[in-house]
Design goal:
The complex is a heterodimer of chains A (about 475) and B (about 350).
Chain A: H1 7-27, H2 32-53, H3 66-91, H4 98-124, H5 135-164, H6 172-177, H7 179-188, H8 200-214, H9 220-232, H10 244-256, H11 260-265, H12 270-321, H13 327-347, H14 349-376, H15 385-427, H16 433-464, H17 467-479
Chain B: H1 2-28, E1 39-45, E2 48-53, E3 65-68, E4 79-81, E5 84-85, H2 86-92, E6 97-101, H3 114-132, E7 138-143, H4 145-156, E8 161-167, H5 179-185, H6 189-195, E9 199-200, H7 202-212, H8 216-227, H9 231-245, E10 250-251, H10 252-264, H11 267-270, E11 274-275, E12 278-279, E13 289-294, H12 302-305, H13 308-311, E14 317-322, H14 328-331, H15 333-349
Parallel strand pairs in B: 3-6, 3-7, 7-8, 8-13, 13-14
Antiparallel strand pairs in B: 1-2, 2-6, 4-5, 9-10, 11-12
Helix pairs in contact in B: 3-4, 6-10
Classes of the chains: A mainly alpha (about 475), B alpha/beta (about 350).
Chain lengths: ~475, ~350
């Protein structure tokens, strides 16, 4: 009977195959490149197995063009809104039962919301990385790192060959300018930007130029505007981000044109507010993408310069000492120098301020999406977060008051007890050392709680101004 | 030269083989246990719990020690594994230990403020230990942010603390040494807290910590391949990973206040910090103080920790340099061999 395919079987099979190939390679004394190839194959297979059995895509997806997606999304939203509007107006015929018609109307609105939200989320949908801990995830991380390690090995090969060549000319460019090094950097710093915006700048440029071409026969005024956008997009790396934000804003305004006609026919309503909210979110997203890409660009530049520095230093060392440098030496040096340079970058005002802005805007996006979600579920029997937050605020305030009352009660009890003790001690002639100690402790506690009571009185005064909680305080006081 | 070339190939194959053994080793590990020292719950208010560690023999130091950890990450770091446990060492050396567990914040806790944490929760724990041991004063040890809380508490209630120990605690937030200190100044903390539903996620904080040493993960996982054939080494590694990933969310109000008033305005050493309307003055600290900092701390650099000694009125102040990083203070071998005995001896001498 054929065994069912599962992760472990496949895993072990890959293991067995790879071990055999490794042993053969060692026995046959194959050269280094072939061994690296075997290792790479093994890693790829392991990664593929993890992806297959953990539901991740086996092939990397090519990032979609963000701007085209937004345009497509605007058009789809407009179209679906008009379709639904049509359906809704037909459903609201006076010939129908009004109750049925109302239910249908509600249903149609839900459909519209769902479609809008689905559309809105589409271009910006980036998977949230889960930090939930599991050994399997660790192994996945390990494989990913090993893969970077192996790629660095492969990149290192021409340089290693240079060490053995009689002319000793070092090919920095092969190392730094190829796609492989860029891929390593993207892998290392993928958290800085959503994957979809990997080629954000190029996407923006392409989109503007294609619009410009398609509008060549349009009115002169419109053409001028697009010309201006195109000029805002700089050519050189140094001024790459200069004005990018303005350009994004301009482009986005163009994209919004797709929605403009039907926005005009939507009467002032909650729905219209929601639509505007959605457009706000899109604009925030674009600014977020611009800033996060700017940040990533800074990191990439620094990492490139650091790699150049490493190679230069190693070449100089080789020339001075004549000993070839092993990959692990190079790898450690690469890590040390790149990390130090990145930390220096992270210390800079420019980076810190940019990061601060990015955090603010990303939190704003989250808030707007939350608001939108609340609008969407307003018709459903669910308690929205904003109401839970209100309750949390009230509970927090009440808990503070209960604690304060408990302390006051405790103080009163202690004072009463102290008074009783002193009356009793006046009656008795002498006290033992133990009792003296206990009295001292109580006195000290009493002193402390008096201090707390004074502070709390001030708090009560302040909070009493809030009418909503006044009643609760009074009731509690009465009970005490 | 050919020899070097072969050596490189062998190094590479060796790594690959160890990596292959890794899956087998990982599959043999059933449970990653941390914080295993026996303890019992003695006080609770909502999610906040006070634990007392169990002892087999009576304590040799009569004043108990209350430990308050940071709100960031979990106190399990102090008892990571039996042979790397500051707690076990303290118990072995004769201390009675109490520890506050701040719990896991949810959205319901978004309004929990620094006043709640310090005046109420920390205060209640101090009072519990005082009452349980029939003592006016107890010993207090604050770790990292918990150290800042301890200093604030002790400034407000010096009559309740016999000896104060601070470990890698940020006090002076003005130095530019640490990245967190630099970044916090450009952070719109109001926007961040309000827009995030009043909760700052642990993942967000961890992402920030990862950026402090941007290639540390790469380094860590590369080195991990070398220990893949050893179950013990791998378990040590996994315990640490578990602790790192166990990062509770932060209550927004407390986070807002901590960032704004300390990281951005440095109010604690400026002398203009108030908690629930009451001025917090470091000069009120008059009891013996042991201030421990880590020489290679990249999270709370020494420049932020050492100045505490200048601001307190204590006559008996000792500043102790630990040769290591922020985490090494708890789990490094020197922590077991040198730091724990130093702390216990210091307390014993002041246990009159």
């Amino acid at each position: 009977m054929e065994q069912p395919s599962n992760l472990l079987n496949n895993w072990i099979q890959n293991w067995v195959d790879a071990s055999q190939k490794f042993q053969e390679a060692i026995q046959q004394k194959r050269d280094f490149d072939q061994t690296v190839g075997l290792y790479d194959d093994w890693l790829k297979n392991q990664q593929k197995l993890i992806n297959t059995f953990m539901g991740k895509p086996t092939e990397p997806e090519k990032p979609d063009n963000l701007f085209s997606q937004i345009l497509e999304m605007q058009t789809t939203i407009g179209k679906s809104w008009l379709d639904n509007w049509d359906k809704m107006s037909k459903g609201w015929s006076p010939n129908y039962n009004r109750l049925d018609a109302t239910a249908r109307l509600q249903d149609t609105w839900q459909q519209i919301y769902t479609q809008w939200t689905r559309q809105l989320g589409r271009p910006f949908g980036t998977s949230v990385q889960s930090s939930a801990y599991s050994p399997m995830e660790l192994f996945g991380q390990l494989l990913k790192t090993s893969s970077t390690y192996a790629k660095m090995q492969a990149l290192w090969q021409p340089f290693l060959q240079d060490f053995q060549a009689p002319e000793k000319t070092f090919s920095y460019q092969t190392f730094l300018e190829g796609d492989a090094f860029r891929e390593i950097l993207n892998n290392l710093f993928e958290g800085l930007t959503p994957r979809q915006s990997d080629s954000f700048f190029e996407q923006m440029n392409d989109f503007t130029l294609s619009l410009l071409n398609s509008l060549k026969d349009s009115s002169g005024q419109l053409n001028e505007r697009f010309e201006r956008i195109a000029h805002l997009i700089p050519d050189s790396l140094t001024e790459r981000w200069q004005g990018t934000s303005d350009a994004t804003h301009e482009i986005y305004k163009r994209l919004q044109k797709g929605l403009a006609p039907f926005l005009k026919i939507v009467p002032p309503s909650k729905e219209k507010e929601m639509l505007h909210l959605m457009l706000d979110v899109q604009e925030h997203y674009l600014h977020y993408y611009t800033q996060s890409n700017q940040l990533k660009d800074l990191v990439a530049e620094t990492a490139h310069e650091a790699a150049h520095k490493v190679l230069k230093q190693l070449a100089e060392r080789f020339e001075a000492e004549g000993e070839p440098i092993l990959f692990d030496d190079f790898f450690q040096k690469w890590l040390d120098i790149t990390e130090a340079d990145l930390i220096q970058l992270y210390h800079s005002d420019h980076f810190s301020q940019l990061q601060g802005k990015m955090l603010t805007i990303s939190s704003l996006i989250k808030k707007k999406l939350d608001e939108q979600m609340e609008e969407m579920i307003a018709h459903l029997p669910l308690v929205p977060r904003s109401e839970v937050d209100e309750m949390a605020a009230i509970i927090h305030e009440l808990r503070g008051k209960v604690r304060q009352l408990e302390k006051e009660l405790h103080t009163l009890k202690e004072e009463k007890q102290t008074a009783n003790t002193s009356v009793e001690s006046q009656k008795k002639p002498a006290s033992t050392p133990d009792k003296q100690k206990a009295t001292a402790t109580k006195a000290s506690t009493s002193k402390t709680t008096t201090k707390a009571t004074t502070t709390k009185k001030a708090t009560t005064k302040t909070t009493k101004a809030k009418s909503g909680t006044k009643k609760v305080t009074k009731t509690a006081e009465k009970k005490v | 030269m050919r020899g070097k070339y072969i050596e490189a190939t062998e190094q590479y194959i060796d790594k690959a083989e160890k990596l292959m053994e890794g899956y087998q080793t990982l599959s043999e590990i059933e449970e990653i246990d941390v914080a295993t020292s026996p303890k019992e719950e003695v006080w609770r208010d909502g999610k906040i719990v006070l634990y007392k560690y169990k002892r087999e023999r009576p304590a040799t130091v009569s004043t108990p020690l209350l430990i308050t950890y940071a709100l960031v990450n979990r106190q399990d770091m102090m008892d990571l594994q039996p042979d790397r446990s500051l707690i076990r060492k303290f118990i072995d050396l004769g201390l009675e230990i109490y520890m506050i567990d701040w719990g896991y914040v949810t959205r319901a806790d978004r309004y929990t403020s620094m006043d709640d944490y310090i005046n109420h929760y920390l205060g209640s724990c101090v009072d519990y230990v005082r009452q349980a041991h029939q003592l006016d004063k107890i010993n207090l040890l604050g770790v990292c942010q918990g150290g800042t809380f301890s200093v604030i508490y002790t400034s407000l209630y010096p009559e309740k603390i016999k000896n104060l120990i601070t470990m890698v605690a940020p006090i002076d937030f003005s130095p530019n040494d640490g990245l967190l200190f630099r970044w916090a100044r450009d952070m719109d903390v109001d926007a961040l807290v309000d827009n995030s539903g009043g909760i700052i996620s642990g993942d967000f904080l961890n992402a920030g910590f990862d950026m402090l040493k941007p290639l540390a993960k790469m380094r860590k996982y590369t080195n991990l391949a070398d220990m893949m054939d050893s179950k013990n080494k791998l378990l040590n590694f996994l315990r640490m990973e578990k602790w790192v990933a166990d990062s509770p969310d932060q209550a927004g109000e407390c986070f807002r206040q901590f960032i704004k008033e300390f990281y951005q305005e440095n109010r604690l050493v400026e002398g203009n910090f108030k908690l629930n309307g009451e001025a917090v003055l470091l000069k009120n600290i008059t009891m013996p103080l042991l201030n421990i900092y880590a020489a290679a701390d990249h999270i709370v650099p020494p420049a932020c920790t050492i100045p505490l000694e200048k601001h307190v009125s204590s006559k008996d102040v000792q500043t102790y340099e630990f040769p290591g990083g922020h985490i090494g203070v708890f789990v490094g071998s020197r922590s077991q061999k040198e730091l724990s005995p130093t702390i216990v001896d210091w307390l014993k001498k002041r246990d009159q």
